[in-house]
Amino acid sequence: MNKNVNHITEEPIIRIGIILPEDKNTEIIIDFPNPSNYTINSEPLSKKLFVKCQSESILINNKLADKFVIEPNNSLNKNDFTIINSVPTGRRFHWQSEIQVRIPGKVIIQNHNGYLFIINELPLEQYLPYVSTSEMNPDCPSALLEAQTIAARSWLLANRKVNHPKLDIDVCNDDCCQRYQGVTDIPDKSLQAIQKTFGQVLLYNNEICDARYSKCCGGITESFENVWGGKPIPYLSGIPDFPPNNNQTDDLLNFIKSSPPAFCSERYVKPSDIKKYLGKVDKSSSYYRWNIAYSQKEITSIINQKLDLDATNIINISPLKRGYSGRITKLKIDYINKSDKNKSIILNSEYDIRNALHKQFLYSSAIIIEQKTQRNYLPEKFKFIGAGWGHGVGLCQIGALGMALNEYSAGDILKHYFKNIKIEKIY
Ligand SMILES: [Zn+2]
Ligand SMILES: [Zn+2]
């Protein structure tokens, strides 16, 4: 993908995968509150569609076709949307569930090797308000919505077709790309804040920035290369998430164990504000500092299941390498296997570590591991003291909320998390 800003001269139309072939869905129900405002393959549309894969085609309400295209007559009508039921969200993460989404714009229904493939097609600026409000409550402070929208726009333009190269879409609707859960009631004030940023992106050396973000950095953001490998990206190198000249990050382990006053800490964001302003599918509210304890039996069973091992006991879990934020990027697990042999396995990414150490997915790999050993040499308990939620690279959403609640502007927020960038309107 060409990230150079000069090749974009007007607002692009984008394609978002809503139901992907990997979801292995073959049947779905779609509702239309205002069917008379739409057509399906240029014919009138009914209120309810029963969609089914039939060999290599699609069957909808007794009509068979290779592909169905549902188009709104007037794509700008705010009250027109398509309701798609049972859309997966948080695929492969601890918050995986199914939700109902309401999407504006054109909907394309196809059969992809026997499975449903549903695409939403619409102009980028119509999509963005629903990304910002899927990530955050629409009532949150304007500066945060503006910053989030500029970051989301930049990320999308820098990452079109990157995550799903085999499918004819730009992005999917989920955390794998950007969370997009469709139409919600956005107050006019918030919509104005979002629209104020029309066409604005982050630039570094005349290239659109790959503006990553995660829920909570834990007090220090992580550097790109420690999470995804490859070369460092200057504007995605880790920073202390503190006001200028207030660096408290000298000793990483102490830093994680204590609760220093970062922008994403309670000093700037009250727990009740996190609940109020976080996106609607996020359940817990303690992200800055948290802990979790396992018995020997529990952790053995989780690790066996996740890594397909035959461990009877875990002897030791030890960090070998940490990133700038304290996130563990290389971890060794020593264990005894069924044949009573001492074995070990090494995990080489924060993603694999988070996956292996939790039934679903650990909030972050910025953890201190405490092992309690009594009588024999095997630990009876493993306690993880953790910081943050997510990979921690780029903008910290809770920190950005903390800044916005304390009178920082969208520009202040973006320039804090992405060093040496420019904000520019490109169309
Ligand atoms: Zn994706
Ligand atoms: Zn933070």
List keywords for this structure.
21% helix, binds zinc ion, 24 strands, 427 residues, alpha+beta, six-stranded antiparallel sheet
Description:
α2 packs across α10 (410-417). The protein is globular, with a radius of gyration of 23 Å. 21% of the residues lie in helices and 32% in strands. The chain has 427 residues and is of the alpha+beta class. It has a domain at 289-387. The relative contact order is 0.14. A 7-stranded mixed beta sheet has the order 4-3-8-11-12-1-13. Strands 7-6-5-2-9-10 form a 6-stranded antiparallel beta sheet, with no helix packed on it. Strands 15-14-24 form a 3-stranded antiparallel beta sheet. The chain has 10 helices and 24 strands. The two termini are 19 Å apart. The longest helix has 17 residues, at 142-158. The model has no long low-confidence stretch (mean pLDDT 91). β21 (367-373) and β22 (379-387) form a beta hairpin. The structure holds zinc ion (2 copies). One zinc ion is lined by residues 216-217, 241, 262-264, 396, 399.
Shape: globular
Average residue-wise pLDDT:
91
The ligands found in this model are: zinc ion
Poorly predicted spans: none
Which strand order does the major sheet show?
4-3-8-11-12-1-13
**How many helical stretches?**
10
Helix and strand content put the structural class at alpha+beta
Quick synopsis:
By secondary structure, the chain is α+β, with helices and mostly antiparallel strands.
